[in-house]
Amino acid sequence: MKPISTAASVKHDTGVTFTTLDERRLEKFGCEQTATVNLRSSREAVPTAIAKEILIQLDSIREQQLLILVQLQKISSSQTIPDVTPDPAHFGLPLSTVEELKRLEEKLKNPEEEKNLTVLLGMVGGMTLKDTVGRVLKRAMNTSLARLINWSGANQKPAFKRLILKSVVVDAVRRNVLTKRFLRKGDRAPHHQMAAAGL
């Protein structure tokens, strides 16, 4: 008489015969593998969530630094503003014709007027050297005049580099607390930026 097996046999479509005990072992193994995969996924998800949070915090810090720099710039500018703030209309800004530019040049031969315009344009601000030069030039003249002049005076156009206004623009850029660290007396950086702006 054959001993009775406690594990019933089951024949699958594959042709391989498994006992119930074998199937239980396979099922247990499958559960362990699933648990391992789930654990691995949860471990991978944790660094991803942390990385996202770090990026959010970095963006917030950048925004706060930008606000601090803007406030610092305002404080620095307010310390150099005279009792009476120069009026842009007094200088006819923004200039739109060569004739207006010539009239301004005559006015700027007065050192006091040159100083006042430097203060006025120095209040424009900007976060980078390029940004500051661009803002100052836009305050000084509009696009139509900018097309009629260039840096060196090529093609019979007025040479911006020979104008008193050029010195005013350079000094105004130097007044910006955020860009003056890039500039030293005699640096050509603003000149290159003005040339890049089409002058």
What does this structure look like?
The protein is mainly alpha-helical. It folds into two domains: 18-76; 85-196, no CATH class. It is built from eight helices and two strands. A two-stranded antiparallel ribbon has the order 1-2. It is elongated, with a radius of gyration of 37 Å. The chain starts with 8 loop residues before the first strand and ends with a helix. Mean pLDDT is 75; it is low at 1-12.
Could you outline the blueprint of secondary structure elements for this entry?
Layout: E1 9-11, E2 17-19, H1 20-78, H2 88-91, H3 98-107, H4 111-122, H5 129-140, H6 143-146, H7 164-174, H8 189-196
Helix pairs in contact: 4-7, 5-7, 5-8
